[in-house]
What we know:
- The chain contains 4 helices and 9 strands, in the order αααββββββββαβ.
- By secondary structure, the protein is of the alpha+beta class.
- The longest helix is centred in the first third of the chain and has 15 residues, at about 15-30.
- It starts with a helix and ends with a strand.
Amino acid sequence: MERKLGRIKEFFYKNRAVALVVLFGVLLMLLPTGKTEAQQPQRQETVSEPRENLETRLEQILSQVSGAGNVRVLLTQERGETSVYQLDRQEVTDGDRREIRQDTITVTGSDRQQEGLLTQVEAPRYRGAVIVCQGGDNPTVRLSVVEAVSGATGLPSNRITVLKMK
C-alpha cells in the first residue's frame, strides 16, 4: 500500500503542471456563474407585431400629432421576421474529401412534438414608409411625423415620405 502511495506521489510530482491545470479547470467549472435559476432566460415564444398591426398603431399615434388630422400609413419591408435556429455542425474527413454537415438541433416539447431550438428572432427590416395626412403640407407636422415614424421603425428620414391627404 505504501508503495502505491509513493508511486502516486511521484507521478503527481513529475506531472504537477498538468495536474495543476486540470485542477484549475475543475475549480472553474464548479464556480457559480452568478445566475440563479430564476435569473436564467426562459424559453419564450416571441410573437412580433405583423406589419398591419404596426401600421394601424402608427396611424393611431400619428393622428394625435397636432395638426396631422386623419393619417394613413404604408410600410414596405425589405425582409420579414426571421427565425434563427441552433445548428449542429460536423466536419467529416474521408481521405481527400472533406464534408461539412449542418443539422438543426431539435427539442421535444411538452406535447411531444419536435421543433427547432430557436436561438433568436430578428425583427422585420423596413425599406420605406409613406404617410398621407391632412396636415402633410405643414413643415412642422411633416417633421414631427418623420421623427415619430423614424423612432418607431428605425428608418432614416430620407426613406420616409409625408404627403398631404386630399
